Amino acid sequence: MPRRLNGIILERLPKYYNFLQERERRGGAAAVSSHEIAAGTGVDDTQIRKDLAAIGLKGCPRVGFSAREVATCLRRVLGFEQRYAAVLVGAGRLGGALAAYPGFQELGLTLSGVFDVDERKVGLAVGGLMVKPLAELEEFLRRFPVELGIIAVPAIAAQDVADRLIEGGVAALWNFAPLTLTAPAAVRVRNECLSIGLAELGYYVKCAREDRARA
Amino acid sequence: MPRRLNGIILERLPKYYNFLQERERRGGAAAVSSHEIAAGTGVDDTQIRKDLAAIGLKGCPRVGFSAREVATCLRRVLGFEQRYAAVLVGAGRLGGALAAYPGFQELGLTLSGVFDVDERKVGLAVGGLMVKPLAELEEFLRRFPVELGIIAVPAIAAQDVADRLIEGGVAALWNFAPLTLTAPAAVRVRNECLSIGLAELGYYVKCAREDRARA
DNA sequence: TAGATTGTTAATCGATTAACAATC
DNA sequence: TAGATTGTTAATCGATTAACAATC
Fold first, then answer.
1. Interchain contact, B193 vs A25, CB within 8 Å
2. Average pLDDT of B9-25?
């Protein structure tokens, strides 16, 4: 297994994992072929064999891979087995939805604090936690080391929040504000920008219209 | 301008747009260089010049690009100027957050219906609309043509909802359930899977821990 | 003019795909 | 054995990067 997996394979592995979870719920066979995973995820089957080989899995000619073994290995490689702490900054609608996301626990994350600058939100329960004032963020991070910061505040406030989380020692940032955050290279940032998705789909809707107009 | 932009450039264009919006709010100069956009988005400056050229923009040596012209062109190319109708299926927390997303209007989308299978949610106000029973989806789509279907239901129900939306004539699907939907090639599907993001970040958290352990 | 910036060609890089031998 | 599937090498493809001429 390579020391580090790159971002491209890292986008595909969770797809395989999701597929295997669904497949197990449906009562799939113990052996799964790369072809079957390909059909369920839209990824090329050769690619899948390469990815699985890259994380140290061996298949069996004529049989396929052990579905359980693949799922276990994916959990381990992706770090779902570890527990790590996260804080959420921004207790608005999006923040609330994130905090309530049932997959968090399964994927290893434990939400340990929720913060908001808005006094009216302070004291509310979000994700089973009481919302704290943003001013207490630094103190909190000193007392409870946190590895992931989740940013669900308006774009205008996001970089400031990011800087404070980084200063507080988080290893990674998950940003839902519509801008590209700047951060030192040691801090991993993932920008989960909704408007990128919407822009892509809007573009296709536009193209579909033009196609119809031509036809 | 090419007939169709591919997915890779389509992921970058909204970043440029977001950056220019932020920049205007901060009162940036009329001219913007590829270098400046590069600094703000993390994209290589040569890449930016190529992308802008690909959508028909011309810059000015020694000066840069007209920020307003670039923003306008991006809006047009990405289809933000058009209005198109969407329905949301799933009025849970995530659905509620999506419906309330302030960027929707700006990006051209008009939410025309919200549906949920849960009777307790029917009649609630979500995104300014009254939640309707899922059983009425087909009838609604017949009466009000809709171009985008937004899926915010549990994984187990997502494919069924997708099939019904496709049957009802949507051109694109925006899927927030953690699985890869299957759809005819004519229907564009974007899977906005939160667990992919979390898996990537969890992986980096794991790597950061291992690095510390080694050090 | 000098110098900053664009625009474009060529080179590099890496990912994906195709082909096929190995294997159970 | 025959045949399905893996595993791997080689070829292709396309994106990114580097270099540099053109331009104001």
1. no
2. 91
